[in-house]
Amino acid sequence: MIRSIAVCNFLPDYIQRLIDETGVAPSINQVELSPYFPQNELRAWHAAHGIATQAWSPLGRANKLISDPLLGDIAKRLGKSIPQVLLRWHHQVGVIPIPKAASRARQIENMSIFDFSLTDEDMASIATLARPDGRTFDQDPARYEEF
Fold first, then answer.
1. 6 near 26, Cβ under 8 Å?
2. What is the DSSP letter of 34?
3. Phi–psi pair at 51, nearest 5 degrees
4. Which of 36, 46, 63, 137 is the Cys-Cys partner for 51 at CB 3.0 to 4.6 Å?
5. Across-strand partners of 53?
6. Which residues have a Cβ under 8 Å from the Cβ of 43 and sit 6 or more positions away?
7. % of residues, the chain, pLDDT over 90
């Protein structure tokens, strides 16, 4: 009866165990992901296994990410907001972002990312923002439990 399952914060080992024990791969793995924490290896693993990557808190929970000077320069040049640049970055790296938006205006702004593209130079510049401590709240699924 179930056509598709999704998981959240699963590491490749967890997903492989799920596949090995059930014969079913999830269609989506929802993980923390941003230019500060791009999860390149995990995204590649997902792609190799036909799993879509979905980003929770793609705007970094309104942390330093939305005031980053490099992102600000790109946004200014494009006539867009930093959140729009961030969401466009997610789209261009093949990730499905799910940003929180409390107001209608913010929802419209978040959806208005398809009338521009980031250049290869923009993408390369944004890639320099990646860092080992890029997680927002150090919620490493290898050792962090929500409940």
1. yes
2. B
3. -110, 130
4. 46
5. 29
6. 33, 53, 93, 94, 95
7. 77
